[in-house]
Design brief:
This protein has 195 residues and is an alpha+beta fold. The protein contains 3 helices and 15 strands. The strands form 4 sheets. Strands 3, 6, 9, 10, 11, 12 and 13 form a 7-stranded mixed sheet that branches. Strands 5-4-8-7 form a 4-stranded mixed sheet, covered by helices on one side. A two-stranded antiparallel ribbon has the order 1-2.
Length: 195
């Protein structure tokens, strides 16, 4: 059991089986076998946005046969082999929010396989990871809809998976109304999540 991230060999490739043995104080994610610290605790504005988005998700999905989860919640993304064995999983992420339609993809350790909708809220220190690494991982894993929320600019970028590739929608600004392509009843004024 390892309880100090500094004891890890950061050049090594790790699996979910390794991840299960770690007891770090800080949260980490595993991206293609590489360990990434999730950084410091999210700031207040990040948490306000997460709370407000959670409220809309709760209103929309509370009485439906799907679930939504907020971080920290482990999502094990499968590679092309689609093996669900702990030793074969090299990516474990903790999206800020995610919606999962298939209850078979949820177990006592989190989710296995791609969520249907993933929402990531940018924070100082994680923007590059969200914009580059996670974008590619979510696309490859088959996430159907991906939102990137930028608190600094009060904008949201929505990407829809089409033919295994994310297609970017028109960027949304604070005075716009957002509507999920995957869940059309999920719509609200953008400004309401930034207050």
């Amino acid at each position: 059991m390892i309880n100090d991230i500094n004891l890890l060999d950061l050049d090594k490739i790790y699996t979910y089986a390794d991840y299960l043995t770690w007891e770090f104080e800080e949260r980490v994610e595993l991206l293609r076998g590489k360990v990434f610290s999730m950084g410091s605790t999210p700031n207040t504005f990040h948490q306000i946005i997460s709370r407000n988005l959670s409220g809309y998700l709760w209103q929309e999905f509370n009485n439906k046969s799907l679930d939504f989860f907020a971080a920290p919640f482990d999502v094990r993304l499968l590679d092309k082999k689609k093996s669900t064995k702990d030793i074969d999983i090299y990516t474990v992420v903790q999206p800020d929010l995610c919606v999962i339609c298939d209850e078979n993809n949820i177990d006592e350790r989190g989710a296995i396989g791609a969520p249907d909708l993933v929402i990531e809220i940018l924070s100082p220190g994680n923007s590059n990871k969200e914009m580059k690494y996670k974008f590619d991982l979510y696309e490859e894993a088959g996430v159907l809809e991906y939102w990137i929320v930028n608190p600094a600019d009060k904008t949201i970028f929505i990407y829809i998976l089409k033919d295994n590739q994310f297609i970017g929608m028109h960027p949304l600004i604070e005075e716009d109304t957002i509507q999920s392509k995957l869940f059309p009843d999920l719509d609200f004024k953008l400004e309401s999540i930034f207050n």
